[in-house]
Amino acid sequence: MRSVFILLSALLVASVSAKKSGGGGDCCDVDAIDRSLRDEYCDQPLFVTFAPKTEENTLIDNICISYFPLPDDPDTFQIYVSRVYCDGSNDITSQIGTQIELGVSRKANPYCTVTDTVFGYAGCDTYLVYRCENYGNCMSDGVSANVYGVSALCRAIGLSCLHKVEEIVSENELPEQEFYVFPMKLPNRCVNQQLCLQPPNPFFNALPGVALI
Prior knowledge:
By secondary structure, this protein is α+β, with helices and mostly antiparallel strands.
């Protein structure tokens, strides 16, 4: 587990000199508002209210995000993203997040690194986040600008809120796109405590005294 943290920390440090809204030429420059990872940690669990309309996203009922500060660095968080699909199935992914500046954070797992910028508040308890990919490929193809919303309330947003979201996106000169509002009809499966997962290594599992979870 320690080697994974070292790898993720290296990815975060390697990309910290990139633009605040991303490291690639395809990233948009948006102005951040006063919202930190510490604020998200205090308001957790958070729920993704909307995201770009893709085939994969339309299969999802709700997404819950949980934050756990690292013991040796309270400003860096292990973040768990728990997705519940419309058929009731569930998957959980994790990443390491650190604050770059107020409103801007860098998040990484072994497969990709992204920069998240909180750039608006829709007034319906929903903050708007613009995500830019710095390394790897962890975003859906064909998405012109990866904008999503987060809220402390586990309920679907209404049309008036969605119209406000579209206004803020337009004011920030981000590409126009269609959003999908997550229905949140099924029970969420938020991660309430840190998970300790053994690496999928047959050699590790075969060591004496090591029990499979």
